[in-house]
Fold each of these.
Amino acid sequence: MIGYLIDMDGVIYRGGHLIPGADHFINGLRRADVPFRFLTNNSQRNRRDIATRLQRLGIDVEEEHVYTCAMATARFLAQQKPRGTAFVIGEGGLLTALHESGYSIVDKDPDYVVVGEGRIISFEMVEAALRMILGGAKLIATNLDPNCPTEAGLRPGCGATVAMLETAGGVKAFSVGKPSPYMLRAARKELGLTTDQTIVIGDTMETDILGGVQLGFKSILVLSGGTNHEDVESYAYQPHMIVNSIADLEHEELFREFSNPVVPTRSRIANLARGPHALLTAAAE
Ligand SMILES: [Mg+2]
């Protein structure tokens, strides 16, 4: 058995539009009953909203297929300090996840300051959070992404807000989202997969691929998002495979490659190339 942890932005859609062929790969996983989760570092929406958005793009998924960094953060905090309190800089997805895990949202004396992303963050909220941190609240980041892609261009991400609080408060946040092992491991366990059976598919070296490499998962970089092929070589860690798009992947072929104990060679992986999107390179382990 193998299963997948799949990033969404830049892999399944880009700028609100489906990446051509992404639906074919995912719908194929559903038909073959292959375990997978969509993993997102966006904490704004809850899993049902995300599933609905994917369904409208023609992807056959249920809310159980979605795992957000907000959910991972809520689970982490519930384990660290059950029924605690949090001051939240973030939006609905994060608030819902914390509530569901038994947390109370407060605006005074919280156990934790929890930071997500959103468009309604104000400097007053950051100022309030700083005072709470200086008063002893622990700083938790849902993720450390420096920016988020939008239709109009980039906007500051969760990592940018967290950096402001770290600098001002002289503290270091604990981050739960990708590439943190916490989120990736929790998603793997939810699928009932072993390390060897888990494949990460993503478009970002610093989150998807780094997280996969750190946990010993197989990793596939897609070039349909924010990473250029020329940039990849400069990283000290490399994905197992690089393809133009998730549309170039076939589950049966990946199963043959990755469930085989023999390390894939460049020529064997090159046989995976299909259709007009040629497989570009494969980095042998
Ligand atoms: Mg992405």
Amino acid sequence: MLRIGLVVFVLAWILGPYSLRSAVPIWLVFALALGLEVHFLLGALRSGPARRPDRRPQPVDRDRYGYEGEADDLLLVRYGDEERWLPYSGETDEELDALLTEKDELDEDDDDEEVTSPAVTESQHVFRAVRRFLVGLGVIGALVLTIWFVESRTGWGSLAGDTRLEAAARFSGEASRIAEKPVTIRCDESRDYVGSVQHADGVAYLGGDRAYLTPERCYDLYRLAFEGEVTFSQTARALAVLTHEAWHLRGVSDEGVTECYALQSGVEVGRRLGLSEDTARRMMRQQLTENQLRGAGSLEYRVPADCRNGGRLDLDPGEDRFP
Ligand SMILES: [Zn+2]
């Protein structure tokens, strides 16, 4: 069940929403799965094989009926309607024949017991436990290879180094226009700065000259600017993140105000990167609506009430449309 769960989770991680990727480092999941496999292996080796029940007379029977230990042969004999265990001790031929027949059956029982003696099942048991462990390792290895393959063939990481530099320079140029000074946008492939905290699609030093975006957001911007490919809400989010960090670099610290300015700047940046003005406006309006629908968990990022057409935060009061 755990292995099936692992496979389902990894597929969800690859195909699912971006928030899952940014919230859960996949290598941590693999480390946990590996730890569980080792735990199961050690547990199985420690517990040993399951013992078969011993159907012969038990010590409690011997106490009750007064028989000695294993040294005597035990025979099942009939007294009227009653069956009883007795030690064999030189009966007459007729009695012996009858008793030997009974004893043969008992010996067959004994043979069964010897086939499954602990010495044999011990090695079988170890073999099974190790085999199960190797299957588990195989599953984890296959999933790691899948992730590696997907990551290297898709997304920001699959682009050539020159292309990534060229794209980052383009994003830096757009951010510099907003910040009104030269700034650098980096796409944080090592995820040292972004991606580990929820909603942290980007990080900027307040009033500084450098900001980091997640590779996913950089790839969305690359697809728009270099390939003309648009995925409406993803492209919209990527534009909003780029402009949001640019406004932080300009020196705006309040998250709500920053986001309000970012969504207005996003129209111009989107248009410059290849969108029609109409599409760019619809994207930023969608981002504004999404922002207003956010739950109490991200109140800090909610735009203030005066983030509206003609409001205090309207960057272009003369313009009738917002954003
Ligand atoms: Zn911010």
Amino acid sequence: MILRDTQSTATMSRESKANRTQRMRKIVSLLNKAYPDARCMLNRGDPLQLLVATILSAQCTDVRVNIVTAELFKKYHTVSDYAGADLDEFQQEIRSTGFYRNKAKNIIGAATMIIDRFDGKVPDNMEDLLTLPGVARKTANVVLSDAFGKSDGVVVDTHVMRISKRLKFTSRENNQGDKIEKDLLELLPHRQWAIFSHLLIFHGRACCKARKPNCPGCPISHLCPWAGKV
Ligand code: SF4
């Protein structure tokens, strides 16, 4: 089914769930071909490093986080290192990632809680991860899928939100991340929950940018209601 014109777009807005699921399947397949290397771009080793990097990545680019963690991970190795960090010093070490006061408080608080409640190990389930300071579903989903290979949901970041809305897979507001995630989970098979967000993040950086999406060069433009209208 090729959907390009106004009529097609109108048809898409009345799209049945079955057709939307089918369109989603085609889009994931095309994006897989376009971005075969799609993966988490945060440099890290163990689950603790991924947790720290993901908390730092809020409102910050992965490139900047990787620059900061390259030094941070040389100094802090264990949860005890983070729990015992000097708050002022730690704030300065992560300052360039933005929101550094909150991030420092959350990372030190999370490390302390991991020691106190989880035997010093980063939890590998959603329920426990969500009890850590600074960890909402987005961060928990990143840690679960990329550190533990467990998919409990879809990571909904700014790229995933924007593109999912343009593709009309959701019509929620940007402050409704959990509901956007729910809409996406209904359209995706479980095995694609983890890769889906990586694909959309790669697509958002390479092609479907916030201000000037490259619709003429987009591999899924024939399946996108917004093609050429942004
Ligand atoms: S056609 Fe344009 S708006 Fe739609 S996904 Fe591609 S780049 Fe984004």
